[in-house]
């Protein structure tokens, strides 16, 4: 039995992780922490977990004292890096759902996250937890940096093209749309329903934190630098990401479909849609699936359009973290993750 | 292994049932039918079930030919009653998620459903499938009439008071609010998102079909006629029912809380909330739970307010059908139904 | 030209008032205040008012110094009462959109609003600003207490029955549903879209602040005490209130329809729907209309159901304030208020 | 007084037009038609227009008999072209809100709309009704082709760059998002709230009908052919379009801001946002404004991002039609169109 603990289990990511872990037959959740809710029962704060979860929140500090096989961080950026070294040295595995170990370049980290890099010595050993890219390394990892939600949808959508060298990496465009749960559970005016419902808006144009993360991974796959334009938007819904990607490619529609089909045919959680069909966010809601389609125009001058959709809280966060944990502990990769989406 | 078939597996109820059954370890879904989609694969019509479900829709008639342990009807009202006798005679068990076997009185049926009563001889043997009320009878039943969504929320909310004789049955008021999936998946203008979003409306005032169903069951519990006012509303959301009930009661707040607590303490799917807390529909989304609270005012002249919430497609339809199936086949009642809600 | 000022013009009520006043041909908005946004331009904070509004926010204190014909308070409860006396003494008229002057009984005020009553000497002179009830007094008033949103919908829905003495006032039930803008624009977790969308919940059961306000006015109309149960709910939408009211009445369906028809036939903003039709919240969105229907059951033992719908920010707040201002300044009551709703 | 008639006044566009025209001081609506609702009163079908509108629907044929100054077509594509010649010959002006007179090339029309071109002789005389582009021609026109909603947002967003020759026209990308009212009011399953809420999806990839319309106009502005990729999406909201455009430009951020500022400074309905600010769809809801921002990245290899937002039913349809009518009849262009948006 894996003893698991979640640091920061009141936000949407942490609570979703808790939902998945309590249904996992080989996991026992031994501790959940929240500095604001310490002392409260989980079921008082999150009644939808009644009666499955019979745990009280403890403080982060108390959690760090607890022995366990794996510690998940579902904390704000900049928290995990201060506590991970001690946990790793004690022998726990760590999966960080925040950004602390995603960016290789400390200077880029400091530019985008506005804080100095802690424990740079552990950066090298952190594995970027996208199983479809780094499965073997994840199996051996003690520390996994769980990818961001936009990067997950984007990288899975472009991976076959980049590996095949079949795309112009100098002019990649990613126009991404997310449900508002991606912005977290902190009270802030723009996240109010009266502001966000019946509204659609772009944000972080030319400056979103996920852009360097995506670029870093795409460049690594391509074996060369890439030029990426990434524009995130908030759609008036709770869950779901759709990334619409524009890429000038060098292969035909049939070749592209075949390339993707072959690339993903053994992946449990990546579902290449039949040619001509269009994935919708609701088809992944609550599930760990990523659904992808590729659309190559008749005119060779126009870019191919690749659509990739995930549930930002599952494949984009908590589900992927469980998938990583399954790999790290030698379990079946799909354990506790095979439920279908809940669409209507 | 239970061989299950679903007649009408394209609407919200049928698809939800399919979602639950494919995850049930003791069930094999052997056939799904749809007269409009026959010949299509389920995954083409409902991509969220990719790749879990590898079935093609067949016609209803083809399905009736197929041998199976249990047949679920998720069809429009008035369909099941024409086919159930043959299936029962062949030895299949039947669970009807429509209204065909809910009302005992054929005249009331004809008044509210506008069509003549078929197979009245089977009415007597149909068990009203509310496990919290009729568990033993369901275990022995060959034919179960799965309750309506509003009746499920309402009856569970009033059951302890009625059994205890602690309520004035002459002036019961149920003000119920439902997500729009309760209206089904047929294309109709009032169900369009442009009509229904950012809108709230009542319908069926003094004449909804669920009123006689609720009255029938409440009267049976009370052992006397009841006078019920039932007003349904459509809320701008997909899933969920909240029934707000007004009842003049003869016991104190503490007694009422204790009464409900005791009544439901062994029920897996009825969750009495702590005194003073308020159940929200999202706390049940995608789950088979019914959450209830009772609020007794300081002034004895005012009625108690009872709140009861369910997911209309799960405890109000497909989940309850699986719960009934579990009972009918001697399985654990909670099998394949214990997942927590998916709230955010 | 009426010189108008708005104290607290950043919340939903204040901004809506600003939207209405800038389109009013006889009003010049001379000052808007916000203690948090002072120094900012209105159009930076509320871009939907670009380019109509060319004003900067000033502090409340600066606004109080400004000479003007009418001051609107769209502030939190407990603010206006400290500043109104000075403004009145200076000769300005005042319309308070908060609760400070609504409740006659200072003890009830203190119980429900948790703060001591200031300037009780002005309470007597404050007129409750429901034009359909107090038109003549409003015309003469210097200080108007603009009604709450729930009270507006409820009182208009019950007024004809109470005046006619055709209802049992001992068991009135109001089950009200509101869009979330009624909860204001302060950042708080339960108002986040991720919490409130796809969710329906009751709140303030047996203890909402609008209950004593409604009871006070109903009792005044009835000439006797009333027993009221008021249950508010939050629906997952931004604007709109639907109040579903249950009342045991002593007249027939035809008499009731006729009573309401006659009562409201000269009211510009109260629209009695034809018998059998059901008002929807979207039919009033952005408009100052209140739409009402009354449904009397065939069974005399069951209560009549009265439905009343308004836009909580317009007829329930800012629009009614403008209607009151029109009366107070001898203008046409409908000036700047006759636009139709914006439904789809 | 302008006598106006609307052919097809039951869909969202026609009803919105009716809402605007009944508030127009120089217009009298003399007839509205609907082949499905003929004989019904407008207020029975659209209660939000009670009591402003006192008209009954007549048939299209009856409407064509009626003398009037201007006839608006808010009908399905392919309707107007069969009736316009007779109306024009009789001396009425015509504004077609459908696509019949938008495309110059009959072959492209037939390819995208799947029906033969009627009255090709009138195509030459139809003026494309985008006032910011064709104001003078509209003033003289007898027949105006009101632009599509996506084309309006897109063309206004790219117009200054194209006129200035400051953009690479060989790789224009438009990623557009629309509320679901753009799909009209016909009952169809994908438009149901249960399907469309909490969902986000692309459609018409590489083949949407608005792509040739946009290309035609952009090419005309640029004086050369353009290569355009246009991807529309449906966002889970009723109204609003946000077009996110990617364009490789040859000028700096400051030059671009200045270019747009100058281009639009005298336009009443195009609002260039201050540098760095991001327009949201809700800031235009119910209004005739188009809000635009341009974002030029630090890296000259990446494209500029232009954001353009409108209310698809107002500036994207009915409001623009009124703006065109104002021009055609020599009225102030902003008459009856200056109301601010209704955001919360």
Quick structural gist:
The first copy, chain A, has about 350 residues and is of the alpha/beta class. The first copy, chain A, has helices at about 10-20, 40-45, 60-65, 85-90, 105-115, 120-125, 130-140, 150-165, 195, 210-220, 255-265, 315-330, and strands at about 1-5, 25-35, 55-60, 70-75, 95, 125-130, 145, 170-180, 200, 230-235, 240-245, 270, 290-295, 305-310.
What does this protein structure show overall?
4 copies of one chain form a homotetramer. The first copy, chain A, folds into 2 domains: about 1-125, Rossmann fold (3-Layer(aba) Sandwich), CATH 3.40.50; about 150-310, Dihydrodipicolinate Reductase, domain 2, CATH 3.30.360. The model of chain A has no long low-confidence stretch (mean pLDDT about 95). Chain A has 12 helices and 14 strands. In chain A, α7 runs parallel beside α12 and α8 (about 150-165) runs parallel beside α10 (about 210-220). The first copy, chain A, has helices at about 10-20, 40-45, 60-65, 85-90, 105-115, 120-125, 130-140, 150-165, 195, 210-220, 255-265, 315-330; strands spanning about 1-5, 25-35, 55-60, 70-75, 95, 125-130, 145, 170-180, 200, 230-235, 240-245, 270, 290-295, 305-310. Chain A has about 350 residues and is of the alpha/beta class. Chain A has a 7-stranded parallel β-sheet with strand order 3-2-1-4-5-7-6. In chain A, strands 9-10-8-11-14-13-12 form a 7-stranded mixed β-sheet. Chains C and D meet through α1 of C and α1 of D.
């Amino acid at each position: 039995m894996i003893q698991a603990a979640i640091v920061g289990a009141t936000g949407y990511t942490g609570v979703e992780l808790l939902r998945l872990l309590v249904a996992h037959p080989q996991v026992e959740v031994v501790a959940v922490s929240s500095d604001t809710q310490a002392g409260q029962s989980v079921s008082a704060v999150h009644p939808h977990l009644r009666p499955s979860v019979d745990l009280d929140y403890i403080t982060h500090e108390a959690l760090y004292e607890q022995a366990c096989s794996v510690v998940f961080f579902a904390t704000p950026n900049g928290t995990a890096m201060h506590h991970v070294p001690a946990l790793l040295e004690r022998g726990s595995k760590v999966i960080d759902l925040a950004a602390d170990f995603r960016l290789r370049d400390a200077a880029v980290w400091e530019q985008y996250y506005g804080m100095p890099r802690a424990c740079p010595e552990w950066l090298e050993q952190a594995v970027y937890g996208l199983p479809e890219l780094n499965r073997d390394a994840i199996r051996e990892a003690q520390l996994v940096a769980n990818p961001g939600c936009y990067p997950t949808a984007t990288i899975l959508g472009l991976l076959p093209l980049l590996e095949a060298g079949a795309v112009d990496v100098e002019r990649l465009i990613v126009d991404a749309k997310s449900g508002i749960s991606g912005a977290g559970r902190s009270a802030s005016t723009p996240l109010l329903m009266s502001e966000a419902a019946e509204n659609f808006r772009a944000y972080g144009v030319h400056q979103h934190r996920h852009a360097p993360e995506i670029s870093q991974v795409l460049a690594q796959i391509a074996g060369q630098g890439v030029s990426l334009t990434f524009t995130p938007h908030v759609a008036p819904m709770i869950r779901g990401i759709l990334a619409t990607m524009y890429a000038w490619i060098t292969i035909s529609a049939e070749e592209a479909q075949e390339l993707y089909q072959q690339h993903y045919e053994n992946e449990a959680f990546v579902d290449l849609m039949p040619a001509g069909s269009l994935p919708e966010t609701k088809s992944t809601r609550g599930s760990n699936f990523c659904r992808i389609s590729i659309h190559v125009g008749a005119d060779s001058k126009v870019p191919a359009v690749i659509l990739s959709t995930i549930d930002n809280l599952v494949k984009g966060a908590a589900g992927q973290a469980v998938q990583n944990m399954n790999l790290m502990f030698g379990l079946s990769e799909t354990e506790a993750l095979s439920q279908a989406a809940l669409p209507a």
